[in-house]
Design brief:
Length: 233
Amino acid sequence: MPSIFAVANPKGGSGKTTVAIILAGEFAKHDYSVAIIDADPQGSSYQWHASSVARGLSPKGIDLVRASNEQNLAQALERLDGHDVVVIDTPGYYGPVLTHSALRADLVVLPCKVHTFDASQVVRTIRNLEQHADAASLPMNQHRVLFNEYDSLDRNTRPLREVLAYLNAEQVPVCVNALYRRITYRTMTSGHGTLYQMSDTDESIRKARYNADQVVRELLAASQGANHSDNAT
Ligand SMILES: Nc1ncnc2c1ncn2[C@@H]1O[C@H](COP(=O)(O)OP(=O)(O)OP(=O)(O)O)[C@@H](O)[C@H]1O
Ligand SMILES: [Mg+2]
């Protein structure tokens, strides 16, 4: 049985595909057999994989499977049972694919920018998923908000304090580590394989690897049921 990570946020452009590719890349680096299920009809993860292959940078140890609806998703999860890790990249809207992914996942990762608009959307999503789990008589799975496109200038700012206070009041668990805004992540997702297929002579790539490693270690611990910390960054 693989560990399943669902990357979810119905808000478009919050960083789901970026986070899914980073998660897959980190696990593959540690020689796990990894699959990404691209469950978004936009096919961004698929596009990343295909253009990496076309460049001769086939993501080592990462299979890519597309699933256009809930039924395909369930079938893909069954077929991928022999993998160590499955990462589901979900669509940018609320629907059966998102709810199915969340119910099957060991961890639901919700990438979110440091802004109240984004945070309130994430809280609504979690409340909807809780209701859905309740209706299915299933427990709500582990979930974490992951601040994305974070900047060190965000530290000690009012928006960060307000967003954290709001998420804490809503009892929503937030990752301690944030994913920084880095051009390297954009380059990678444009079809350059994983961070480990990019040249490490470049300081910015080393920094991106360090950040990705910290984030994924925390998400792995959360997927295994470790206690969450209430205060990010
Ligand atoms: N940490 C980051 N640093 C730099 N750019 C980022 C980061 N995260 C996301 N981006 C950029 O923001 C845009 C949206 O990211 P991404 O495609 O991962 O979001 P998404 O949630 O999958 O979007 P959609 O809802 O359309 O599927 C992309 O151009 C991506 O390169
Ligand atoms: Mg996407």
